[in-house]
Amino acid sequence: MDRILIRGGTPLTGTIPIGGAKNAALPLMAASLLTAEPLVLANLPDLADIRTMANLLGQHGVTITNAEAGEARHGSGQVLELSARHITSTTAPYDLVRKMRASVLVLGPLVARFGRCRVSLPGGCAIGTRPVDLHLKGLERLGAEVELSEGYIEARAPKGLRGAEIVFPSVSVGATENLLMAASLAEGETVLINAAREPEITDLAQCLVAMGADIDGIGSDRLVIRGASSLHGARHTVIPDRIETGTYMMAAAATGGDVRLVGAKLDHVEALVRVFETAGVCVSETADAITVRRRNGRLTGTDVMTEPFPGFATDLQAQIMALMATAEGASMITETIFENRFMHVPELVRMGANINVHGASALVRGVPRLTGAPVMATDLRASVSLVIAGLVAGGETIVNRVYHLDRGYERLEEKLSACGARIERLRSAA
Ligand code: UD1
Fold first, then answer.
1. Which of 187, 251, 254, 190 is nearest to 217 (CA)?
2. Distance, CA 310 to ligand 1 centroid (Å)?
3. pLDDT tens sequence across 358-405
4. Ligand 1 centre from 306 Cα, in Å?
5. Burial of 368 (0-12, 13-18, 19+ CB in 10 A)
6. Residue 13: exposed, middle, or buried by beta-carbon count in 10 A (0-12, 13-18, 19+)?
7. Fewer CB within 10 Å: N-end or C-end of the chain?
8. SS3 assignment, position 418
9. Per-residue pLDDT tens digits for 222-238
10. Whose CA is closest to atom 37 on ligand 1?
11. Where are the alpha helices (DSSP H) in 155-255?
12. 377 lines ligand 1 (CB under 6 A)
């Protein structure tokens, strides 16, 4: 297995291009199942999770071709044409779903268009139990019959789905996406109340509108969808990745650097910018980029609580903890979205951080410096927090289990070394 070697202590300076958002791309790819006409998606990142979704759609019968030839490229991402004209299977098998929970996003589109779908239950996960009950209850409200059998979710709606009012008891990004897609082909009006408002949902809704869906309230927590009998093809450009943006903002701040993030959008990372203001990091925006620069001296410890958008993203929690590990004073970091999302703490502690977890909160007492160590993490964002810690630490850090990073960060070592980081991938012999 590949590893990443980092020799820390160099401030990052330079420019980093931000890729298309993984978490926007995955539901957008699933949306291709809603129509027999081609959906062209531009600015798709080249990541392991995108390949997993392409494999899953491929086994449903979706043909995926590179649509780049002969046309202008949008951003740096790939352009794919997805055509779900001939669907050969409505089953999402265990082997693919266990690799990536977002596979469950095929459920809504397949039931809505074909009246049936079988998806393997996603099962356990490194950051908590993560059930899919909200997805299933919502589909039942739209008239689907849902059963669990032999480890699979089986949903049927032979006469099609019917619009309904769905009140989410808690905010779920995936359930909102699944039901938004399903409701686009349901008969009549669906109202989603307490819907998630993440930018990735807005991106999906805008793509669905381009495909002929009628959706009001985009960007709010109340989405009104008037279903259509069919949707058509469209072309859509994926939004920039706000989690990649926030991660590199943190890397720049942690190393005392000065970095320009080209393609990033400030209004997607406002909660982080507010934390930066208190902590002593300057953020400015130009037409095509965000620039991050640490003010002189050490950072100031700042409390952070994760919340649904527009609050502070849980997918940036591990990274802000690595940043606060060397701040002056204490920071209380509270995780409200996922249980068990502090797996990075023992590894940061091995690098010299002073962190104590009490239930859903971690008390981080800043230390003057971290020291390099061999480390590993069990999920994507935890792994990248160890990369940030390695960039500030004295000496060498080796991050194991790099496949986690490859699920969500495109050309990570290349982007960081272009800004002066001493970082390289150690390829495994196998
Ligand atoms: C998405 C993101 C993930 C991010 C998360 C929260 C993708 C592919 N993944 O995950 O990176 O960390 O949003 O911003 O976009 N829950 C239930 N029942 C359900 C569904 C969710 O109880 O049916 C709970 C979850 O266990 C969790 C919380 O709701 O505690 C939020 O989860 P959700 O917003 O659904 O996350 P995902 O869509 O899985």
1. 190
2. 15
3. 999 999 999 999 999 999 988 899 999 999 999 999 999 999 988 889
4. 13
5. exposed
6. middle
7. C
8. coil
9. 999 999 999 999 999 99
10. 174
11. 173-184, 199-210, 242-254
12. no
